[in-house]
Amino acid sequence: MGIISWLAVTFSVVLILIGVLYLYLNVAFLYWRKRNFPYLRPTFPFGNLGVLLTRLKSMGEVYADIYRQMNGMKFGGVYLMHRPQFIVRDPEMIRNFLIKDFEYFHDHGFVFDEKIDPLTGNLFMLTGKKWKDLRAVLSPTFSSGKMKIMFETMVECGQGLTEFLDEYAYSKDNVEMNEVVAKFTTDVIASCAFGIQCNCLKHPDAEFRRWGKRMIEQSLMESIIGILYVLVPSIPIFFNLPLTSRSVSAFFRKVVRETIEFREKNAVKRNDFLQLLIDLKNQKRGKEDKPGFTMDEITAQVIVFFVGGFDTTSVTMSFCLYELAMNMDVQTRLSTEINTVLQQYNGRVTYEAIKEMKYLDKVVSETLRKYPPVTFLNRHCTKDYNIPETDLVIEKGVQMVVPVLGLHKDPEYFPDPEKFDPERFNEETKSRRPNYVYLPFGDGPRVCIGKRFGVIQTKVGLVCLLSKYEFQVCDKTADSLKIDQRKFIMTPTEGVWLQARYRSDPF
């Protein structure tokens, strides 16, 4: 066959495939219309979320745009390529989906295969009874009592954080705070989850910091695999492609195995997350008397705690410091409260002192409002659900999405939403606002299990910093922060550049 004939055949095949895809998607795009749901008109071939593939916007920003386009609607349908998604905007409906009717929406809906990628068998990914049983087992780790036990570790890491900044405060050099606080949170998580002192602030090339960055900075191929798991999971599963990088998986499995072997051999016990899992390792589970946790199951829980703990907390602290530098009146009021309370505790950062800092709580809440680390919530409909007071049915298998960023930036609930205003969270203002429009950690039975840990860690880091330093803008500070479109967690693209100056009355 000549080259011209070969090209003609290839061109014909491509045209036929495009035609088949066009016909298939046109049928798929009738899903919401056929069921009489309100919906946004999709475009060929990517439905309503095609901009995600261009990486011009993050998924959270795309859903926030959809939220705004649905203004005046309580809910509506969209398409992620061929897959129908149900978007909910109404606070009362959000309550139903997350809490009241949780039995219909108890799973996140991620498709995975533990045989291909054992580390996907974690609390975040698991479904049904397996998730429920594991949640019950792990919840005691995040009680107030456990937080108090881990608190001193957080404070020790916070003191290391302030010592690290001494050089910058003395020289008045600019410092990129997102990387600095990420090292602090890595130190905290490494100690509380693994019982390992890695001192990332003193040793910037520490393994934990490198592998922490490696987990969230995906290669192009890893990004493609992740997209395939969302759109057509059968493809990566057929080719045995893991969702977790094999190198990341190997590192954490090695660390967990070696740590557990050392503790068991030397009868070492620590009050940390890993110890709870070690204690469960040899216990029988359930009425069936199943064996206790395997090494892979333990590693899966530790790695999701590690990822969720260090990244979300570090970006929250970074965004908060940026807003405090841009709003010096807020920073002055907060630092005054911090130093006033610490005086009552002889300059010591204690659990009780943190609890007394009411304005600090407002500042952290407003940071999480403007910059929610997780910008949307997704739930999988596990059985047909009739929407109350309608004849509409959400069918089993449809994914429900709550656009958290859209809610947090809705002027109906948060007037002048781009303004950083901690007083949105005073008692009077909160009482006038509907419930379920502020969801930085989700809500209901599937609310983030590490919520309390993350908030306390954030507050400890901020108290240690603001009791000693004042943060100011510098010539490298952005007028507004650009968000990295490639990452699932809301992250500043170019970091947060500030100057740290000594306060006159530090503790």
Show the helix and strand layout.
Elements: H1 3-28, H2 31-34, H3 51-54, H4 59-69, E1 75-80, E2 83-88, H5 91-100, H6 128-138, H7 144-171, E3 174-176, H8 177-194, H9 207-216, H10 220-231, H11 234-238, H12 246-266, H13 273-281, H14 295-326, H15 328-344, H16 351-356, H17 358-370, E4 377-380, E5 385-386, E6 393-394, E7 399-402, H18 404-408, H19 427-432, H20 451-466, E8 469-472, E9 497-502
Parallel strand pairs: 2-7
Antiparallel strand pairs: 1-2, 3-9, 4-7, 5-6, 8-9
GO cellular component, one term: endoplasmic reticulum membrane
Protein name: Putative cytochrome P450 6a13
Keywords: Endoplasmic reticulum, Heme, Iron, Membrane, Metal-binding, Microsome, Monooxygenase, Oxidoreductase, Transmembrane, Transmembrane helix
